[in-house]
Amino acid sequence: MKCRSASQRRTALSKSSPRTKAVTIEQATQYLSKTAEFLASAYVDLTQGRKIAATSSTVHAGINAGDVVSAVRSGRRSAGDAHDRAVDLLRMSGPVGLRWPEATRSARDSQTEG
């Protein structure tokens, strides 16, 4: 996926909002690396029967992946404890961001069924 320049990013939220933080492409790349690391950890934990640890790592992977999407698309990430703000950022990130909350909800629901 091609990263948008700062002038092309969607910025519907105020840049001074206390619940968001400006993010560079370099930082978004770090979030992507963290996503991969958490997913690898979740896989190992799951294969070893550590379902709680696997779920925790999966949640952290999802949080970081959401930060990647919103950072690349809008240049911002959620910085507060209000999870609805992160969802707002994802919704403003275009079609990829719009699908993200539903995809993570489906993954969460499949984790709780087992």
Question: How is this structure best described in words?
Answer:
- This protein has 114 residues and is mainly alpha-helical.
- It has one domain (20-113).
- 66% of the residues lie in helices and 5% in strands.
- It is built from four helices and two strands.
- The protein has helices at residues 25-47, 51-74, 83-91, 95-113; strands at 20-22, 76-78.
- The protein has a two-stranded antiparallel sheet.
- Helix 1 (25-47) packs antiparallel against helix 2 (51-74) and helix 3 (83-91) crosses helix 4.
- It is elongated and about 40 Å long.
- The chain starts with 19 loop residues before the first strand and ends with a helix.
- Mean pLDDT is 76; it is low at 13-18.
